[in-house]
Amino acid sequence: MEFLDKDQFVITITNETIVDYCEILSLLGEFDEEFYPRHSSLVIHEHYAKKLAENSKCIRVFCDGMLSACAFYYENTAANDIYITFLCVKLIFRRKGLSSKIIDYLTKKYSNNYKSISLLVRVDNTPAIKFYRAKDFVFISQNDKQYLMRKCI
């Protein structure tokens, strides 16, 4: 899918299954510094990449050919849910609607076959929580570190 955005970037969205462990590990490394704290301080990338390679799908967003955002998700057929396990936009591309494009893409693609999209977000990640609430996600549960949020599609 390719289109122009409001800033006149040519945005390309790819959706694919990546089974190559090294490619996934490279993507995780490329986005690691975009998280605070770093994503690698929260999960062991080597183990996480193996899990992603087994059965996740990957969305990559390119602005004028430059990798700008990335998301990994699972199709949970038993729960009738799309579970986003990783979503990140590079700092220089934030506030340009790329996360919205990812959520909108998943909503449109899966609304006929699944009932919801869910994800975990850190309780201290106020900007992300505000964004997900604006995209119609609601709080389902929480623990000390994370909220489980869900959007009906």
Strand-helix topology:
Layout: E1 2-4, E2 10-16, H1 21-31, H2 45-55, E3 57-63, E4 66-76, E5 81-89, H3 98-110, E6 116-122, H4 126-134, E7 138-142, E8 146-152
Parallel strand pairs: 5-6
Antiparallel strand pairs: 1-2, 2-3, 3-4, 4-5, 6-8, 7-8
Task: Describe the protein in words.
The protein is α+β, with helices and mostly antiparallel strands. Helices cover 29% and strands 37% of the residues. The protein is built from four helices and eight strands; from the N terminus they run E-E-H-H-E-E-E-H-E-H-E-E. Strands 1-2-3-4-5-6-8-7 form an eight-stranded mixed β-sheet. Helix 1 packs across helix 2. The protein is globular, with a radius of gyration of 15 Å.
Quick recap:
The protein has 153 residues and is an alpha+beta fold. Helices cover 29% and strands 37% of the residues.
**Contiguous helical run count:** 4
Please report the distance between the alpha carbons of the first and last residues.
21 Å
Cα shape: globular
What's the order of the H and E elements?
Answer: EEHHEEEHEHEE
Q: Please estimate the helix content.
A: 25-40%
Residue windows where pLDDT falls under 50 for at least 5 positions: none
Mean pLDDT: 93
Rg calculated over all Cα atoms: 15 Å
Number of strands: 8
Percentage beta strand: 35-45%
